[in-house]
């Protein structure tokens, strides 16, 4: 009884206000940490602002690199060209500009920017060779058009994709593994796109080697966000094998 009375007197001298405020702050900090980890606002899953350019890049790559799958190139556009020929002119801008934004957001090193410049040069050069040779080959097929479109153009283009992808992968290292479902869906989409492009662009062996390399690198970084590359690599391998079987 005396102990209880002493406790009551102690509580009277020490008003509950500071303790309540302290508890409220702890709950607030815990809630902020949960929101930062899960990226939730209300009932919606939010993509961190830093990751938006990378998300846009993945979507752009997965869509733009399937323009050749559109039926009949969306129709005639005059002088033997197709609508997709003209749309294809925008692909380097649509893919590489958000990729650059992702690097700027991550504040990468100068060396990374240099490698991105090399990858961008390969990407735009190979894409340009492919686009022109493919458009000519649609009207006047020849071994020369096939060489520059399906071989030289694609090989240089996809080499650029690989170098740019490597620079983007460097921004994922030492970041916590994401719980955002969109990240994993886009990883599968990017890998599938790489696999189907490599098969259709006569780049099967090189595409397979690079897919396995991405899977291995991602496995090594499975404890951080670089683990997304493992999903990309595995999806690419599955797409390559599936495309070979279907064909």
Describe the model.
There is one protein chain. The protein is mainly alpha-helical and 247 residues long. It has two domains: 17-46; 48-246, no CATH class. Helices cover 74% and strands 4% of the residues. It contains ten helices and four strands. The chain has helices at residues 2-13, 17-38, 52-64, 83-88, 91-106, 110-139, 143-169, 181-200, 204-220, 228-246, and strands spanning 40-41, 44-45, 76-78, 81-82. The strands form two sheets. The protein has a two-stranded antiparallel sheet with strand order 1-2. Helix 3 (52-64) packs antiparallel against helix 5 (91-106) and helix 5 (91-106) runs antiparallel to helix 6. It is globular, with a radius of gyration of 26 Å. The chain starts with a helix and ends with a helix. The model is unreliable at 26-43 (pLDDT under 50).
Short description:
This protein is mostly helical and 247 residues long. 74% of the residues lie in helices and 4% in strands. The protein has a two-stranded antiparallel sheet with strand order 1-2. A two-stranded antiparallel sheet has the order 3-4.
């Amino acid at each position: 009884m005396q102990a209880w009375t002493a406790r009551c007197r102690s509580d009277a001298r020490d008003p509950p206000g500071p303790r309540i405020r302290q508890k409220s702050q702890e709950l607030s900090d815990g809630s902020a940490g949960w929101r930062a980890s899960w990226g939730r606002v209300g009932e919606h899953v939010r993509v961190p602002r830093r990751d938006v350019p990378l998300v846009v890049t993945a979507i752009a790559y997965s869509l733009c690199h399937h323009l050749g799958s559109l039926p009949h190139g969306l129709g005639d556009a005059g002088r033997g060209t197709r609508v997709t020929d003209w749309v294809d002119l925008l692909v380097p801008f649509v893919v590489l500009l958000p990729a650059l934004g992702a690097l700027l957001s991550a504040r990468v090193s100068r060396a990374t920017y240099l490698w991105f410049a090399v990858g961008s040069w390969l990407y735009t050069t190979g894409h340009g060779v492919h686009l022109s040779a493919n458009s000519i080959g649609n009207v006047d097929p020849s071994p020369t058009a096939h060489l520059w479109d399906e071989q030289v153009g694609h090989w240089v283009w996809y080499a650029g994709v690989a170098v740019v992808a490597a620079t983007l992968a460097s921004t994922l290292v030492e970041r916590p593994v994401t719980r955002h479902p969109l990240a994993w869906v886009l990883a599968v989409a990017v890998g599938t796109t790489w696999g189907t492009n490599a098969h259709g662009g006569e780049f099967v062996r090189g595409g397979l080697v690079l897919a396995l390399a991405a899977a291995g690198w991602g496995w090594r970084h499975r404890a951080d966000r670089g683990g997304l590359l493992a999903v990309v690599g595995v999806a690419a391998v599955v797409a390559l094998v599936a495309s070979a079987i279907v064909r």
